[in-house]
């Protein structure tokens, strides 16, 4: 039976890069069916809800979801969508490619970001005029779960593991994170190092080649992966997977990029690479590898969108990838 993929372009350039990536998926002729869902700023204006129940049901009932980007309504769209697939791990690979000018061509990192809690728990309030608070939630269960996932992932890649934290300041929350990770590591005899996340940001810029898998609390994973995008040629290159036990959602790391939205020049690479992650997750390993190879050839030989110094359109790049499948 063919898989059903929920497709939610979202806002801004999501509406350009997602259709381009669906064209690539279609060209593989795997018999996948696509069901379209609405979410985001325009959906809020049109329907009064940024994420209608129908879209959430679509995601829950599909075998996987391809999402584009969220704009102003990000907190009401991405976080509930990631929750709809029960995703606990956000996997964000950041690597340099031949043919793309990279600040650090030796970069080959994977951020394993805790996806359910931290400062993205959504517990924020204004307790008095001009005084706002945010509750940072870190639990033993979620910390152990992301540690197990990160250690397993590192074994597959044969990579060292670095655990980012700030337990010297956030003693209770990151103290818990570090303690839970340490216990998981001890039980399975896994080797790893810990790093204060601010110092790690500098080290990643100076010596990315010394790192492999970086296990992070939620916000640190969001920020450090964007930092790594800067090392390899920009956010147009970073795909991601939100993995749950039974379902998963795939999306480019970038947001809606309102500055270039509507111009047809957004780089579709991150979204197409997200579909490669999706195909591999669904068991289509050969098709996933085919997409990666076609993307790599296109990055090496062109055409390139303006973010990579070229003048090609989103559609030109998608067509070049399809020709190389
Ligand atoms: N496609 C990812 C996206 O829309 N990113 C914008 C954003 O606000 N991201 C926050 C996050 O990834 O948690």
TrEMBL record:
One of its GO terms (molecular function) is isocitrate dehydrogenase (NAD+) activity. Residues 4-321 form the Isopropylmalate dehydrogenase-like domain. Keywords: Oxidoreductase. GO terms for biological process: isocitrate metabolic process; tricarboxylic acid cycle. Belongs to the isocitrate and isopropylmalate dehydrogenases family. PANTHER family: DECARBOXYLATING DEHYDROGENASES-ISOCITRATE, ISOPROPYLMALATE, TARTRATE, ISOCITRATE DEHYDROGENASE [NAD] SUBUNIT ALPHA, MITOCHONDRIAL. This is Isocitrate/isopropylmalate family dehydrogenase.
């Amino acid at each position: 039976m063919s898989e059903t993929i929920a497709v939610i372009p979202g806002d801004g350039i999501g509406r350009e890069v997602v259709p381009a990536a669906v064209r690539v998926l279609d060209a593989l002729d795997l018999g996948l069916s696509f069901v379209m869902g609405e979410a985001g700023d325009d959906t809020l204006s049109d329907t009064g809800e940024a994420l209608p129940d129908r879209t959430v049901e679509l995601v829950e009932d599909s075998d996987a979801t391809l999402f584009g980007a969220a704009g102003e309504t990000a907190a009401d769209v991405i976080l509930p969508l990631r929750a709809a697939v029960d995703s606990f791990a956000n996997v964000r690979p950041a690597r340099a490619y031949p043919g793309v000018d990279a600040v650090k061509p030796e970069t080959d990192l994977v951020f394993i970001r805790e996806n359910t809690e931290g400062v993205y728990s959504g517990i924020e309030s204004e307790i008095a005029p001009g005084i706002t608070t945010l509750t940072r939630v870190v639990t033993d269960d979620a910390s152990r779960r992301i540690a197990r996932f990160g250690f397993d992932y590192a074994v597959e890649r044969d990579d060292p593991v670095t655990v980012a934290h700030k337990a010297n300041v956030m003693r209770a929350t990151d103290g818990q994170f570090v303690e839970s990770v340490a216990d998981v590591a001890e039980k399975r005899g896994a080797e790893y190092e810990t790093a204060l996340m601010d110092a790690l940001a500098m080290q990643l810029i100076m010596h990315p080649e010394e790192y492999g898998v970086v296990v992070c609390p939620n916000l640190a994973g969001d920020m450090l992966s964007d930092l790594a995008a800067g090392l390899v040629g920009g956010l147009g290159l970073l795909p991601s997977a939100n993995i749950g036990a039974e379902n998963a959602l795939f999306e480019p790391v970038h947001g809606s990029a309102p500055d270039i939205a509507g111009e047809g020049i957004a780089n579709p690479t991150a979204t197409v690479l997200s579909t490669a992650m999706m195909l591999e997750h669904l068991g289509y390993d050969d098709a996933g590898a085919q997409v990666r190879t076609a993307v790599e050839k296109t990055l090496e030989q062109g055409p390139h969108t303006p973010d990579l110094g070229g003048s090609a359109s989103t559609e030109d790049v998608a067509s070049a990838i399809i020709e190389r499948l």
